[in-house]
Queue: 2 jobs
Job 1
Amino acid sequence: MTILVAIANDSVSSAVIDTAVRLADGLDEELYVVHLVDEDTADGTAMQLRDEMRERFRDATIVATVAIEHVGRSAMRSGTRIGNELLELAADVDVRHIVMGHEPKGLAGRLREGDAAVAVIDAANVPVTIVPEGPADV
């Protein structure tokens, strides 16, 4: 089985990876690290993030697959759509645990965009670890 790790190009991704590595080490599991994109093809930023993650795991003792996945278009708010896509990936990859970050958006942002972390927590049938955004001075 595998731990699904959702990353973005944001301030919390490094902490998400660190948390996932500790879980994988403790549970003797592999990681499936995924960056979700809206575009049909990944742009340079997404590919750079993927390559950085692959490099990070190159000499690691933990087995990690790093991928970019396309988020299908739908009428759902972007955060909700991302959460649902993660749940679909979890079912496809035989996931034992999900690790993802969370950056507060405020009420207006949650209403406008939805919240991927909340969507995953509400519907996941496996444990979910949410890594919050740390203080700005850390």
Note: The longest strand covers residues 30-37.
Job 2
Amino acid sequence: MKVLLKYGKEGIPLEIEKTPGFIDVLTPSDPEPIKDPPGKVAESYRKPIESKPLADIARGRKNACIVVSDITRPVPNALILPPLLKIIEAAGVPRSEITILISTGIHRPSTKEEHIRLVGHDIAKLYKVVDHFSKNREDMVEVGKIQGKVPALVNRLYVNADLKILTGFIEPHMWAGYSGGRKSILPGISSIETLEFMHGPEMIAHPNTEYGMLEGNLFHEAGLEIMEKAGADFIVNVTLNTKKEVTGVFSGHPVKAHLIGCDFLARHCVREVDAPLDFIVTTNSGAPLDLNFYQTVKGITGAATVVKPKGDIIIASCCNEGAGSPEYKEILNMVDFPSSFICRLMQKDFFIPDQWCAQETYQIMLDRDVWIYTDGLTTEEVKKYHLHPVKSITETIQTLLAKHGPNARWAVIPDGPMVILKLAGKSK
């Protein structure tokens, strides 16, 4: 059976020989793409979810800040932004008073070329497009405290705006349950000091900060708390299928519209496995998500939920930007053994931005082996990071069949973290 694994822009064709324990190729069910995306978006602005029409909300506002996702997210801004901007300007907000703020979180800033790719040439030329810098303390305003104790520091341009709009897309997320909505603010445009709490070792280790879970999820609840304090007038979130086509538009109330979008997505992306697997073949969902090893934790974490202890994860991730940021490379170079590294994190011997993804990765590697097929890391780097290099996915499958036996239980996940895997009977 032939499968195309999501990898970079082109993918990797894989031919699978079904063995007695092969479970299936698990993919999200693709809802039909919207037939008239521009029309649906325009309608969502006129008839939003649990909200006044955008034109009514924008009327009388002096200025506006529109938050957009950075280059790692395939948000269809060319569909969302032009009619959004037209409505805001028609409502009386001058073009010179509209800021498009890129929610980089702690990712690297965008290049000028990426600004054009994100918002289009005309918008990049005619509007103020600004990157969020989480480490610039002077750019932040404290809007309150999370749980009454942790300072919530949010980008000043957003906090001081008269009209606040969040855009993005909803996908499974390993800590927040689902992306979109409140996540545009936290971590999107929050300060590194606030993110130290949100990505601290206790938060990451909490059993409810996981894919597909919202109820009792501390990450999700903190995001809602900050959004309430910082303010949000309107959101525009979309869902996409595996071809990056728009399948749903959820505009309106910042909380209610997002939850309806999450419910819609859950019906298509959750897949159950009746018992734990010996090994799994997965991806990091291809471009743009698999641009580095830092992001690759998403595919690893998504697969680990159904792989038994002492099992194996094979992941294909392009990593064309290598390991990630200089801080992340620094963290990876600190890892002598996964167990001792996790111990030091929990004892709070240090805190370095980006350590949270390393924590997720090495928590999994405490009792599972991770194999990686990549063009972006050298064999030496892969081994240094305590993973197994893969030259041929097919040959590695044979290696793991030899390890776990001819009846080994295994599956293939071509779309990686776009599928939420769960064991049958386990509540989400």
Note: The longest helix spans residues 77-90.
